[in-house]
Write a structure and sequence with these properties.
This protein is of the alpha/beta class. The chain has 8 helices and 11 strands. Strands 3-2-1-4-5-6-7-11 form an 8-stranded mixed sheet. It has a 3-stranded antiparallel sheet with strand order 8-9-10. The structure holds glycinamide ribonucleotide. Glycinamide ribonucleotide binds next to helix 1, strand 5 and helix 7.
């Protein structure tokens, strides 16, 4: 794989919780061609803030409870983000509904990961709902963010087959293992100029991505990535 752009892309990561997806990017900033300029949380006790501080990444907390309205929160959040002049905003377990003004401001430069095979199972408690519905497969999706909750253009999905009698926590753990592969990969694609959004269509290496998004396969990974995904679906 060749990098189209050599300088690291500045990014800001938004979190609300554990930040394990953030960690997967902190650990590989150089390889991903990114510089994480800041991590911002709407929850003061989010463990991801500790992960960022441990990596000497500036952290900010904007507690939604201190804001008069959703619009006021999003306006202040955009001000905080834009201070760092990121080329990409990465939502990594950021559990907030976003206003259209906010998503429009970052159109084509904000990614999210959602723990389901979108468009199925938007919203919360996806692992539990998938088990209760008796699905045979589940997974996770990286997509560009639009005003529609978990509804923006799909980029890449990874699937896991459900095991009989599997508990929600174990299924969630296996889905997250896939997240640590596909999210950094999409961020790397974006940061090296391979991935962009044209209107409502993601373009990867000059080719439009279908509405269903791409499915993670070993061909999408170079040797280093294949190694880091050992034990996953392929
Ligand atoms: C991830 O599994 C991510 O897919 C999910 O939150 C988790 C955050 O984990 N995001 C959503 O549900 C967004 N709708 P992490 O804080 O350990 O990265």
């Amino acid at each position: 794989m060749t990098d189209n752009n050599t300088s690291a892309l500045p990014i800001v990561v938004l979190i609300s919780g554990s930040g394990s997806n953030l960690q997967a990017m902190i650990d590989r900033q150089q390889e991903l061609n990114i510089e994480i300029r800041a991590v911002i949380s709407n929850k003061p006790d989010a463990y991801g803030l500790t992960r960022a501080a441990n990596a000497n990444i500036p952290v900010k907390v904007l507690n939604h409870k201190d804001c008069a309205s959703r619009e006021a929160f999003d306006t202040e959040l955009a001000r905080l983000i834009d201070d760092y002049e990121p080329g990409l905003v990465v939502l990594a377990g950021f559990m907030r509904l976003l206003t259209p003004a906010f998503t429009e401001h970052y159109a084509g430069r904000m990614l999210n990961i959602h723990p389901s095979l979108l468009p199925k199972y938007k919203g919360l408690h996806t692992h539990r709902r998938v088990i209760e519905a008796g699905e045979s497969e589940h997974g996770t999706t990286v997509h560009f963010v639009t005003a529609e909750l978990d509804g923006g253009p799909l980029v890449l999905q990874a699937k896991v087959a459900l095991n009989p009698e599997e508990q929600e926590s174990e299924l969630g753990r296996r889905v997250q293992q896939q997240e640590y592969i596909i999210y950094p990969l999409c961020v790397q694609w974006f940061a090296t100029g391979r991935l962009r959004l044209d209107g409502n269509t993601p373009i990867l290496d000059g080719k439009p991505v279908s509405k269903e998004g791409l499915l993670l396969k070993s061909e999408l990974l170079d040797e280093k990535w294949r190694h880091s995904s050992e034990g996953s679906i392929f």
